[in-house]
Design goal:
The complex is a heterodimer of chains A (394) and B (281). With 394 residues, chain A is an alpha/beta fold. Chain A has eleven helices and 15 strands. Chain A has three domains: 60-237, Rossmann fold; 252-319, no CATH class; 320-383, Herpes Virus-1, CATH 3.30.40. Chain A is globular and about 65 Å long. Classes of the chains: A alpha/beta (394), B alpha/beta (281). Chain B: InterPro entries: TFIIH_Tfb4/GTF2H3 (IPR004600), vWFA_dom_sf (IPR036465). Chain B: This is General transcription factor IIH subunit 3.
Chain lengths: 394, 281
């Protein structure tokens, strides 16, 4: 808890940084090559940080605690902190369900000294997006209560099975918290329940927030601007390393049949509340034959987790990520064009470096390198090589 | 046809199993369809990749052998270039494939690699043209060889990428059904169809695969079949309806096992639901 423990010194304590000196003119007096190189370097550094992988908490249960107090009406993020954060969260929710197909999300807001659960834990992105839409019309009022919010999240996360990864992501704008009791006691309980708490601050660093994150193994960060905020929130898309206290069990899942043409029209279980038109296309739970129009879902009747094989395969990329490519100078390689997109390598700054897959030795351009690692997660060069592709993919 | 151009990337299966069918008709259909796509709209553009059991190769646009091509038969020069590029590429591939001995386990073409390259090509074209107009693009996969499932993960990765880029993957299979490619068409919103005879190929391509997504919605295409999304268990490689999945690495087991063979964790079964945890040090 003492400041000395923290190896990172504050910005105002560190030495004078001459940030402009990293930009160098080249021999013809242009800045562009140097700037391109800096941009490329930062993009790639993000990939390199992500070297995998210990055991991951693949089955995530995440509560987002959103500060909805007076402080969210500040206009330092445009148009307001509230609107800006909700916009970012909208993208986050979509992306989260895309990358973590068997995980669940929930939203809690805190204002007027109380906390309210706005959407329960569920793996249906539409429900959360509706909730976000509703929140846009809710005014931000009063003071937040960190303790109340944590208690609400705790009450539902505590009873989850021990093999799940329990997480809380707090987006906090206020500099105060108004609590009914001792927050340290709540922290103790959170810690005991093995919940990982991360905080993204919109205003400034708070000692209590930093303390929570430190004790529960989460991350703490304060955003500089809207782009930075988006980056910070999106850091939580990747599943965290599994905590040592987590159990491993076998989970029962069902792979439903999709039936298109020869079925009778029926209602699906997922939209029972808002009475959709009858449709014939759907997935049927193998245990109780309840119908669902979209997967993944948890069967409302028998509680079976319903997924498809591609959903599981989508999670494999966190466990078996694509290895980094080696960066070499374009002159050193014999390739004239990118193996992926057929882009001809020219002498411009953007093509100064090319990237070589360590397994199949094919050469890729910078954009393909980034795209392959961020989106595709498999190398087309390795897939086009019979000796490699035959035994790497089981 | 739509006003803006459409980029069609064709992935053509050139596996030696083609010998069982009429290769001449098959290639004619490929070239005719490529020509039709280019001729239908001046803004249309094309990419052709071929894959066999040894490699995947860009046929068009190709960078090698770009000598001055003159108009020869009164047709658009571009069409002649496509013909010759495809012909030249396939010849090289066939020679290379003939030179190496055929192994029995290589019964599948490396289509997933070719699809991955096709997607990267689409991605580059889209970013290049982002300032002028939105480029409509799609991927068309023609498959003749059999299916072994050895490239499962790369296929799925390609489908998910296509889904993210909102690029439909159309699949036309000659001969037997292919469940894996059918999943891809279903995930990305493309069309899947299986033709029995290679002679029907061109006709099917023209009728079902030539029109854009807007026109397709109005068409009375054959109803989609049931797509099999079951997973194969890791222990016996059989397709299962219900399975147990490891909470750590998502390995699929058809019955309860005490230890995960993929990630070596031991499963705890007889624990109480909520564990009182010890203090962290």
């Amino acid at each position: 808890m003492q400041e000395e423990e923290d190896p990172k010194e504050y910005r105002w304590e560190s030495g004078y940084e001459k940030t402009w000196e990293t930009i160098q003119e080249d021999e013809s007096g242009r800045l562009e090559p140097s700037v391109t190189e800096i941009i490329q370097r930062t993009k790639r550094r993000k990939l390199l940080d992500r070297e995998a992988s210990v055991r991951l908490g693949i089955m995530r249960h995440v509560y987002i605690i959103l500060d909805y107090s007076q402080a969210m009406t500040e206009q330092d993020l445009k148009p307001t902190r509230q609107i800006c954060t909700l916009k970012i969260l909208e993208d986050f929710i979509k992306e989260f369900h895309d990358q973590n197909p068997i995980s669940q999300l929930g939203i809690i807001t805190t204002q007027n000294k109380v906390a309210k659960r706005n959407s329960d834990l569920s793996n249906n992105p539409q429900r959360h997006l509706d909730c976000i839409k509703k929140l846009q019309d809710v005014p931000c009022r009063g003071e937040p209560s960190l303790q109340n919010a944590l208690e609400v999240a705790l009450s539902s996360l505590r009873h989850l099975p021990p093999h799940t990864s329990r997480e809380i992501l707090i987006i906090y704008a206020a500099l105060t918290t108004c609590d009914p009791g001792e927050i340290i006691a709540t922290l103790q309980k959170v810690q005991e329940a093995n919940i990982r708490v991360s905080v993204v601050g919109l205003a400034a660093e708070l000692h209590v927030c930093k303390d929570i994150t430190k004790n529960t193994g989460g991350s703490f960060s304060v955003s500089i601007n809207d782009l930075h905020l988006k980056e910070l929130i999106n850091e939580h898309l990747e599943p965290p390393p599994a905590s040592t206290k987590m159990d491993h069990t076998l989970i029962k899942v069902g792979f439903p049949h999709q039936i298109n043409a020869d079925a009778k029209p029926a209602l699906c279980m997922c939209h029972l509340d808002d009475l959709p038109p009858l449709n014939t296309r759907g997935y049927y739970c193998p245990q109780c034959t309840a119908k669902y129009c979209d997967l993944p879902a948890e069967c409302r009747v028998c509680g079976l987790m319903l997924v498809t094989a591609p959903h599981l395969a989508r999670s494999y990329r966190h466990l078996f990520p694509l290895k980094h490519f080696n960066e070499i100078l374009a002159e050193e390689s014999s390739a004239k064009e990118c193996y992926g997109c057929q882009k001809q390598f020219t002498a411009t700054a953007a093509d100064k470096n090319v990237y070589v897959c360590r397994t199949c030795q094919q050469v890729f351009c910078f954009n393909c390198d980034i795209f392959l690692h961020e989106t595709v997660h498999s190398c087309p060069g390795c897939a086009s090589n019979p000796t490699i592709s035959q035994y790497t993919n089981t | 046809m739509t006003e803006e151009g459409c980029l069609l990337v064709m992935v053509v299966d050139m596996h030696p199993q083609l010998a069982e069918h009429d290769a001449h008709t098959y290639l004619n259909a490929v070239v005719a369809f490529a020509n039709l796509h280019l001729a239908a709209n001046v803004r249309n553009s094309l990419g052709v990749l071929a894959a066999n059991h040894l490699e995947s190769r860009f046929l068009y646009p190709s960078c090698d052998g770009d000598g001055v091509e003159r108009q020869r038969d009164g047709r658009l020069e571009m069409l002649g270039q496509v013909d010759r590029a495809i012909e030249r590429g396939l010849k090289t591939m066939a020679v290379a494939a003939g030179a190496s001995p055929m192994h029995s386990e290589q019964s599948e073409s490396l289509l997933s690699g070719a699809m991955g390259r096709g997607l990267l090509y689409i991605k580059r074209r889209e970013t290049e043209e982002v300032l002028t107009k939105k480029l409509q693009s799609r991927l068309l996969v023609l498959k003749i060889s059999s299916d072994t499932g050895s490239q499962y993960l790369t296929y799925i990765n390609a489908y998910l990428t296509a889904q993210k880029m909102s690029t439909p993957v159309d699949v036309c299979v000659v001969g037997g059904e292919c469940g894996l490619l059918q999943q891809g068409a279903d995930i990305t919103g493309g069309t899947y169809h299986c033709v029995r005879q290679v002679t029907e190929l061109l006709q099917t391509l023209l009728l079902m695969y030539h029109c854009g997504p807007a026109t397709r919605r109005k068409m009375n295409a054959p109803p989609p079949d049931t797509v099999d999304y079951r997973a194969a268990c890791f222990c016996h490689r059989t397709l299962v309806d219900m399975a147990s999945v490891c909470s750590n690495c998502l390995s699929v087991y058809c019955k309860a096992v005490p230890l995960c063979t993929t990630c070596n964790v031991i499963f705890q079964t007889d624990r109480p639901l909520v564990r009182l945890s010890k203090k962290k040090k």
